[in-house]
Amino acid sequence: MHRIAVLAIFSLLLSGCEKGNPLTVVRAVAAGAPSLAPFFEENSGLGRDTTTVRSQPVQGSLQQGDTPGLYGGSKQPTICDVAKLERFLTDPRNHQKAQAWAGVLNIGTEEIPEYLDRLTPVLLRHDTLVKNHDYKKEKAVPYNSLLQAGISILVDEQGLPAVKCSCGNPLRPFEGDTGRISVEFEDGNKKWVGYQRESVVAVKPAPRKLARIALVDVQEPARGINRPVGSTGEKDTTFNTKKRRTVPDLAGTTFARASRELIDAGLAAGYAGQGVPSDGAKVTATDPPAGTELPFGQYVMLTVAGGGTSTSGRETGLTTTPPPPSSGAKTPPKSTPPKSGSSGSSGGRPGESSSPPPSSPSGRPGSSSSPPPSSTAPGSPSPEKSSSPPGPPPSTGSPPTGAPVTSSAPPPPPPATTSAPATREPPSSGPVTTRPATSPPATSEPATTEPATTEPVSDGPSSTVAA
């Protein structure tokens, strides 16, 4: 009886937690399965999915849009017919649909052609969470969905899913908690082979517009594809995903900066747990350690201290990402070992995930709400100068016997020293406000390091120009 009572209490406590943070219901959408209420018929030739792709393992359920290897491609660039989609949406007979479609993306119908010109066709390499839209009663009806790996989509300039190719449905970022979802496999969308809860991801925008996206060929994983943003495959160049890339020394940097450096190197930032570390969280270790050589898109697990976390749109109660046991090979075993050359999916840069989406949904390139983070990291220590510290402490009595070197002697000379600095010629320099002069440089420095306009710096294979 005692055990039963304990179980009953425990279940009540759990149900209480569920009410405070309920599961988000998500409808599964299988590759090749027709939508029941699409914007355009699945057989209209807008695009086709690939049913042979299996979702890749991930280290972190919230990925950044420019993560190396997040998306795939193939030698057949016709996975999405953007020109045909544009003709459908600009056809006067489809004006009602065009209005509903454009409304989801926060653009006007006259902006549709220009918006489509900035989208890029890719194949999903992970089962991906999005906010999908049906077309019912001349309106766009939103619902959360899980798109199976292998589905063809169009992504915008920040790597966010924007359109489901086969039916033209507009897509927006998933806004729920990636760790609390209930996936429903219904309406012909049977649970697919290879489905694993830990392989599910949501995508947040890259901090800046991308010039190209680094894809992995879904048929030939050793073949990488650099696809210029806004092109459909005709301008693709290839690279070898097996070529080794060196893990940079990231200890002491912020999570946002470390993520950018890994992306530039063609590697993915991994983290433990459901919550992505905040941009300013300090990196204390990497696994594998700096100097290790890895294939394109492989994960580097980042251990951080402090900073808070978030899942996709909400802040969680965590304050630190559970660090891996030192920099050994303990934490990454789950995903680092498997398919080293093909799993690229962790991002990490802007901590805000669902707020950014709404502001970047439209095709407006630079409007993403996630500006290049990491500006908060550098520059904080400079304000503390040797002459400054003494002043603040003795704020109890009269002016801090500032002039006489740090002598924290508020008792003896307060009056004498106070008047001295005042009468002396230093009136102009007296305010020794040379301290502030040191702080400005600090702020300007981060400004240049953030965007590090080294966009094109990524060496061909690197995931994107966005750092």
Mind explaining what this structure looks like?
This protein has 467 residues and is of the alpha/beta class. The chain has one domain. The chain contains 8 helices and 21 strands. Strands 1, 2, 5, 6, 9, 10 and 11 form a 7-stranded mixed sheet that branches. The chain has a 7-stranded mixed sheet with strand order 8-7-4-3-12-13-14, with no helix packed on it. β7 and β8 form a beta hairpin. The protein is globular and about 60 Å long.
Write the SSE topology.
Layout: H1 2-20, E1 24-29, E2 62-64, E3 71-73, H2 82-90, H3 95-104, H4 112-117, E4 120-124, E5 127-136, E6 139-147, E7 152-155, E8 161-164, E9 172-173, E10 181-184, E11 200-204, E12 212-217, E13 223-228, E14 237-240, E15 245-246, H5 255-264, E16 268-270, E17 276-277, E18 282-287, E19 293-294, E20 299-305, E21 309-310, H6 356-359, H7 414-423, H8 434-449
Parallel strand pairs: 1-6, 1-10, 2-11, 3-12, 5-11, 16-20
Antiparallel strand pairs: 3-4, 4-7, 5-6, 5-9, 7-8, 12-13, 13-14, 15-19, 17-21, 18-20
